[in-house]
């Protein structure tokens, strides 16, 4: 019998990490997928994406503006939680943002 190999079912319970970026009193809470089981490396990779975006794109996002104004070296990166599943992770991120009200999670309103 030549049975076809079954396609592998896509996992929907991958781990995600919720992280905090901090510069003095300014904070940002974000979430990213854990790649190859390496939490710290996944958060570091996501942080570098934030830094690159801040310097390459002229985005009026508070985080990007803070990185441009104060430099990436003025920030510390912290792992807050690891959550299994994309939906629960994004829900938990929203809960933490509502609870802590991080100052860098919003867009800058120029002229307002």
Account of the protein in words:
The protein has 112 residues and is of the alpha+beta class. The protein has a single domain (15-100), classed as GIY-YIG endonuclease, CATH 3.40.1440.10. It is 38% helix and 23% strand. It has helices at residues 39-56, 62-70, 86-100, and strands spanning 15-23, 26-33, 76-84. Strands 2-1-3 form a three-stranded antiparallel beta sheet, with helices on both faces. β1 (15-23) and β2 (26-33) form a beta hairpin. α1 crosses α2 (62-70). The longest helix is centred in the middle third of the chain and has 18 residues, at 39-56. The radius of gyration is 17 Å and the shape is elongated. The mean pLDDT is 89.
Structural topology:
Layout: E1 15-23, E2 26-33, H1 39-56, H2 62-70, E3 76-84, H3 86-100
Antiparallel strand pairs: 1-2, 1-3
Helix pairs in contact: 1-2
Describe the structure in brief.
The chain is α+β, with helices and mostly antiparallel strands.
Which key phrases capture this entry?
single chain, 112 residues, alpha+beta, GIY-YIG endonuclease, three-stranded antiparallel β-sheet, 3 strands
């Amino acid at each position: 019998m030549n049975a076809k190999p079954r396609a592998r079912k896509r996992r929907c319970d991958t781990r995600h990490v919720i992280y905090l970026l901090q510069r003095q009193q300014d904070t940002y809470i974000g979430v990213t997928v854990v790649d190859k089981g390496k939490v710290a490396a996944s958060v570091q990779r996501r942080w570098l994406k934030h830094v690159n975006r801040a310097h390459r794109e002229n985005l009026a996002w508070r985080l990007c503006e803070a990185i441009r104004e104060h430099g990436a070296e003025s920030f510390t990166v912290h792992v807050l939680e690891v959550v299994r599943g994309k939906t629960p992770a994004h829900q938990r991120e929203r809960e933490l943002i509502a609870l802590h009200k991080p100052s860098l999670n919003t867009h800058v309103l120029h002229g307002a």
